[in-house]
Amino acid sequence: MAGLAALALSFSLTVQAAQAPQPVLQRGYDAGVSGATLTETTLNTTNVAVGTFGLVFMLPVDDAIFAQPLYVPNVAIPNQGTHNVVYVATMSDSLYAFDADAGGAPLWSVNFASLVDATPVPIADFVFNNNKNIVGNLGILSTPVIDPSTHVMYLVACTLENNTMAYRLHAVDITTGTEPYGPGVLISATFGKSTTFDARYLTQRASLVVSGNQVIFAFGAVESEYSGEYIGWVMAYDKQTLQQSGAFATIPTASGGGGGVWQSGRPPVVDSAGHVYVFVGNGYGCCGYDGAKNFSESVLKLDPANALKLLNWFTPDNWNTLDMNDQDISSSGPLLIPGTNPPLIAGGGKAGYLYVLDTTDLGKFNSTDSQIVQEEYIAVSGFRGGPVYWQRSAANGGPLLYNWGVGDFVKAYAFSGAQFAATPASEGSVSPVWPGGILTLSANGAAHGSGVLWATVATITGAQNDPPVPGELHAFDAEDLSQELWNSGMTSGDEFGNYAKFVPPLVANGKVYVATWSDQLAVYGLLKQSTTTGIASSVNPSTYGQSVTLTATVTSSSGTPTGKVTFMMNGSSMGTATLTGGVATLTKTFQGVATKSITAVYAGNTSFSGSTSSVLSQVVNPAATKVALNSSQNPATVGQPVTLTATVSSSSGAPTGKVTFMNGTSALGTAALTGGVATLTKTFQGTATKSITAVYPGSTDFSGSTSAVLTQVVNPAPP
């Protein structure tokens, strides 16, 4: 295993526990650019719905976002603790690190134009024929890539330096935003004897990838396509030295030029050997393809470890027709189909044909196209965002490939292991608007009911040549695309603003991050559902010292809340208990006779809002007591000292206070209780039978009580 696939595996093993959030280190999620995350355990076809899912917060930035956000969990930010972080690059050459769960102010941000005393490029100054494919600034257009082994992100920023367009490769520490390998490297290249990289005519839209020790990226035309000026490029740079290790010009000698590698922002595919695959756009004039130096309308297999040596390629038999009609296959990019042997790639371009190719032998050019594993017309008016793929076993329904082409509806195609079905397994009905839907799939493995297909779309025409235009986020049941689960236009307040062209949503750890052309990142997730908390007492009124169990029950119409409940008495915490099945209990022995004002406070969690119960008035009465009375001498004689002992007892502890000893209605004396015992020594005069009682009047916490009558016999003294 090579490249980012190996790095992502290393990151997962060293930084994360099972079921922990998974990082998203490049556009398309993985080196095969499947466009799918299969570790999404929170969002599913049940809870992605109106009322339970929606916009949770916005993250403001300084310009439009054309790069897919990236996500890394458990990042230690110096002096700010550990965060799950979402990284956002903008067209003003800025990079932001935000807390992905809570939002708020950036953890850090950096502007790469200012670092080199430059500005973003005002694109209107460099376009042709007033083209408006992009308006405003040209800054960081492509999606960066992160190397988790070093916590370094690589990005390409376009800057205006001395009134000249320039591109620089930057390596950025994702914990601080600093550049550990020095300032950004100015990108330049030559190919052959006379072909020179000219930044003024190029844009770097195809996203970056890592293959082994190399960072790979590519260039296509700046704005409007035209002949004679631009040439497409693929480049490789050493990821530590930032020195160029390879450069490949796609059409270096053809008279018309062209051959851009733009792929609607999709990155190259990296296979298990580290080889990369790109789709090349149309050439101009007669000779965009010659199979020797010029490779318009081709799929290229390049070796980054060997200076981007061309290893193989595929060119369709109608390449010249595609060239002449601007039907370049680089309007999208390749996808490596997982689990195939030999490994297959799939993808298509503006002509709408899906090509399935054998990566071990792409077949070069063949006038009969017999080298193609499968060619299927599935995208009306062409591919843009390109396909995404859900890898499932046959027992779980089998693999599905999804595409939402220009002027078409979203569709899913079953894969047999060798070929895709010619007709869709399911399709949606949302009206198509250029450029169709830019897709992401999320699922919990192959589990039924977990697959959600997400799409960003423009809602009106104009995204192609008169942007910006409003956009929407849509969610479909990935097993049945006729079932739209939710979209951001269903509920007022869920709108994200203007559509960011060709940028797929990022799904990570229960949230969906949507790039916009409204200077903000929109973050969607499960809405906190309302709860009701009730409280009850096992004994009310209770007595001093008696054990009482308080029970809090937290309910919601949207499921069973989890988390913790804090029991509060007169504004102070009595203790915290964990909910089990929506119920939390706390057993308390109340001290002090009074009426206690008690509430149960549910703090809430990511899915449920907090709530507080009504006040429970817990009445605490004095504890009951019993008085036992004993005499040290009974019968006694006249003049003989007798000690009377009163023992006051209670199940709630040892009463305190005083006891009065009575003879009938007359007090004999009073004694203080010590450990619940009071004594009085008395010498009785006169022979008689005394009716003695011990009277405990009670205290703050204990009720009063009187002993049974002790009949004290007093006999005459002996002669």
General description of the model:
- This protein has 719 residues and is mainly beta.
- The protein folds into three domains: 24-526, Methanol Dehydrogenase, Chain A (8 Propeller); 532-621, Immunoglobulins (Immunoglobulin-like); 626-715, Immunoglobulins (Immunoglobulin-like).
- The chain is 3% helix and 41% strand.
- It starts with a helix and ends with a strand.
User: CATH topology of the largest domain, which one?
Assistant: Methanol Dehydrogenase, Chain A
Q: Identify the CATH class of the largest domain.
A: Mainly Beta
The main sheet comes to: 6 strands, mixed
Total helical segments: 3
Uncertain spans, ≥5 residues at pLDDT below 50? 1-18
- Given helix and strand content, the structural type is mainly beta
Q: Assembly type of the shown chains?
A: single chain
* Computed Rg: 39 Å
How would you summarize the topology of this molecule?
Layout: H1 3-15, E1 36-37, E2 53-60, E3 70-77, E4 81-89, E5 94-99, E6 108-111, H2 112-115, E7 121-122, E8 137-138, E9 145-147, E10 152-161, E11 164-173, E12 185-186, E13 190-191, E14 195-196, E15 202-203, E16 209-211, E17 214-221, E18 233-238, E19 244-249, E20 269-270, E21 276-279, E22 299-303, E23 309-315, H3 319-324, E24 335-337, E25 344-348, E26 353-358, E27 364-365, E28 374-377, E29 388-390, E30 400-403, E31 411-414, E32 426-427, E33 438-442, E34 452-458, E35 471-477, E36 480-487, E37 506-508, E38 511-515, E39 520-526, E40 532-537, E41 542-543, E42 547-555, E43 564-569, E44 572-578, E45 583-589, E46 594-602, E47 611-612, E48 616-621, E49 626-631, E50 636-637, E51 641-649, E52 658-663, E53 666-672, E54 677-683, E55 688-696, E56 705-706, E57 710-715
Parallel strand pairs: 1-33, 23-27, 41-48, 50-57
Antiparallel strand pairs: 2-39, 3-4, 4-5, 5-6, 7-8, 9-10, 10-11, 11-12, 13-14, 15-17, 16-17, 17-18, 18-19, 20-21, 21-22, 22-23, 24-25, 25-26, 26-28, 29-30, 30-31, 31-32, 33-34, 34-35, 35-36, 37-38, 38-39, 40-42, 42-45, 43-44, 43-46, 46-47, 46-48, 49-51, 51-54, 52-53, 52-55, 55-56, 55-57
